[in-house]
């Protein structure tokens, strides 16, 4: 009986073993399952990679950045110094000064350039293996007539936040930068119309009035819609800017208004804003800002 009892005990123990696996066996089975899952995913990724061709970017599809233009003054009386720079090895820069398009046959830049007349500068960067840069352009203007002693009145006054150095800002021969918050070079207005009256110290022979303005649509600053010049209540010149409401990048603009060639003691310049910011802009329906920094008589 003792022998049979011993056999019976072993049988029961075996039944319990197969009905309830040990913890170590459960862990082993879980690990096997995870390994199979990982191998399956890896197989899918491998098949996906094998079905796609690897493509490489060719050098001639890479475009150079625009050259940096440095000028000691965009407005000058005698001469200005012009420099170009691009921090890219084996890059060469070519330019024109007459407003024509830059090509590989244009003048090669080697050293700073002295400018002694109004020039429309265009510049591009070239490289043996890369695409040429986009054009970078700027206008450098010689001031032929000194009006710094003139009397200036502006109605209405500039906004208090963008007051510059007051009325004299428009005749101080100091050009504002593309960053209108830098310095006191700009007069800012949020008005439908600005009237600028200039009384010269002596009669001046003139055939053109130039208004220097800023366009920075991201800051709600738009070019004017119209600019007109009058003398003794007679209109002597006017322009309409048809692209004022068109989306454009930041720019410093010289708005040229041809006038009847004559000697003038006084002139009045009327600058009219767009009626409202266009629909494509986030500020649509509101009155845009006008920024002016200089009046030039030629």
From TrEMBL:
Residues in GH29D-like beta-sandwich domain copies: 78-133
Domain of life, per lineage: Bacteria
Pfam families, sorted: CHB_HEX_C_1
Protein name: GH29D-like beta-sandwich domain-containing protein
């Amino acid at each position: 009986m003792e022998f049979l009892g011993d056999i019976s005990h072993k049988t029961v123990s075996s039944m319990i073993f197969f009905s309830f696996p040990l913890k170590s066996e459960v862990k082993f089975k879980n690990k096997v399952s995870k390994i199979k899952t990982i191998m399956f995913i890896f197989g899918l990724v491998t098949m996906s990679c094998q079905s796609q061709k690897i493509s490489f970017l060719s050098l001639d599809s890479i475009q150079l950045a625009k050259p940096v233009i440095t000028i000691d003054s965009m407005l000058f009386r005698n001469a200005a110094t012009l420099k170009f720079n691009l921090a890219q090895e084996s890059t060469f820069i070519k330019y024109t000064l007459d407003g024509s398009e830059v090509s590989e046959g244009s003048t090669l830049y080697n050293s700073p350039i002295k400018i002694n007349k109004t020039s429309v500068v265009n510049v591009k960067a070239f490289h043996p293996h890369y695409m040429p840069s986009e054009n970078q352009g700027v206008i450098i203007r010689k001031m032929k007539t000194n009006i710094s002693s003139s009397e200036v009145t502006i109605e209405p006054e500039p906004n208090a936040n963008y007051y510059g150095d007051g009325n004299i800002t428009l005749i101080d021969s100091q050009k504002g930068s593309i960053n209108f918050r830098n310095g006191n070079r700009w007069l800012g207005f949020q008005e439908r119309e600005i009237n600028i009256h200039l009384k010269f110290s002596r009669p001046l022979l003139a055939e053109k009035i130039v208004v220097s303005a800023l366009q920075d649509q991201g800051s709600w600053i738009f070019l004017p819609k119209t600019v007109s010049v009058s003398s003794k209540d007679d209109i002597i010149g006017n322009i309409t800017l048809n692209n004022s409401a068109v989306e454009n990048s930041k720019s410093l603009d010289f708005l040229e208004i041809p006038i009847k060639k004559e000697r003038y003691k006084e002139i009045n310049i009327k600058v009219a804003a767009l009626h409202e910011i266009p629909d494509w802009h986030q500020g649509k329906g509101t009155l845009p800002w006008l920024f002016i920094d200089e009046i030039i008589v030629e």
